[in-house]
Amino acid sequence: MHITYSLKNKLIILVLTAMLPLLMLTVYVIFALENYSEAYDEIVSNMTIANSYNLDFKDEMDESIYKLVVGAVTFDTIEEDDTLESPYVLIDELSNEFGELAKITTDKESRMWLLSLLRNISTLRDRIDDIKVNLDKGGRYDENIEMLDNNIYILTELIQDDIQYYIYYQTKSIEQLKIQLNEQVQAFIFFYAVIAVFLVAFATIVTGFVLNSITGPVNKLCDATKQIAGGDFSTRVAIEGKDEIATLAESVNDMSEHLEELVRQIKEDERKMRYAELRLLQEQINPHFLYNTLDTIVWLVEGNDSEKAVNMVVSLSEFFRIVLSKGKEIITIKEEEQHIRSYLEIQQVRYQDILDYDIQIEPEIYPYEILKLTLQPLVENALYHGIKTKRAKGMILVTGKMEDDKIYFDVKDNGVGMNEAELASLRSKILKPCKETDSGFGLANVNERIRMNFGLEYGITIHSKQGEGTLVQVVIPARTKKAVLGGEMENV
User: Fold this and answer.
1) φ/ψ of residue 483, rounded to 5
2) pTM (2 decimals)?
3) What are residue 166's DSSP bridge partners?
4) Long-range pairs for 271-276 at CB < 8 Å and ≥24 separation?
5) What was the pLDDT predicted at 12?
6) Average pLDDT of the segment spanning 82-97
7) CA 473/CA 109 separation, integer angstroms
């Protein structure tokens, strides 16, 4: 089905309906606050500059010129005194700073006082020039003192007044900004209230429409899936529209049609799984093993070694008793241990010159359950592919223990081992389904059965070094009860 009115589009419309007006209001508020912040920062910066000169300029200028007039310093040596500053340097700094302020100040009153200040600075420079000329000519001390009292001090006082008036009107500008901001806030509150009422009404209508277009079909789907879950595969759901839910309804109808086929396939898979297990049994109950064992028994009887013959018959009987297990697929670890013990007892009689074995399975895990014929194929593999090809005395060690709700088995031999290429090939083969494996069938079958019954985190791993032997590790969950093969198992 081609989706025309998708749920995504419906939700986008719903979100935009609510968000777009809010976004516009947010942009408006940000813009207003940004303007206010810039204006406020500019005024504060200007006032900071003005205050720095308001506090120091008059005192520094008066002191410097007085010491020049009384001859304590000269214009050439004044900068050598750390406590004094050249009058021309002070004037240049003041003129530059307030000249820049005059360029950016927009407030009429503040600008007027800035222009007055700049004029007074220019006049002050002229009077300082006069004093410098007199000092250069010499002998005009009284005239300089009079000029200091009647001109310089008055001009620095006027400049200080200009700065203070400038600061005063800049302060008033901040108050005006505050008033404007309050007006904008009030306008925003009113505008926001109107928009909010509109949004609530509009969003309620749109939300109701969108929710009904979603929840109605979903409820129909829920009812249909309940009927299908109850086994009624004839159930169909009809939903009008061209959105994802309508597409989902078509998929549910298709699912209902194919469930019967799926059930049939599941039964076929179970049959194949059973076939794989039977194939494992056929592989393990090797006729050659039975023939060789019987030949060994006959040889022992003919050699009048009746005790060994009886023990071998008992071991063979125990071996097949556990193989059959009255049709059970799950046995206890104690039974599995007895199975490999019977197998090794039989094989040790046949290969007494090359085979030693030891089984060290912790008794506390005996009650736990294991898939039948998990360890015996690993022991057989260790004997035929590890010990026999070594052509010397060999050892097979089987251990078992439990850690963190998992049971670990190791089947280790000191046989010929494998090189890296052979090990990589075998590891690859045991990960394939056993029916696709042309060699290493026993290991692949064990690994597949464990993973199918317990999960992909369980199974076997192989480690080997050429000339040192092979270690096959088995991990299964620590469980004691199983209802159905391949079904849920309960932890202890």
Assistant:
1) -85, -55
2) 0.46
3) none
4) 273/452, 273/486, 276/433, 276/434, 276/435, 276/445, 276/448, 276/449
5) 72
6) 84
7) 93
Per-residue pLDDT of 346-361, as tens digits, reads 888 888 889 999 999 9
By CB atoms closer than 10 A (0-12, 13-18, 19+), residue 114 is: buried
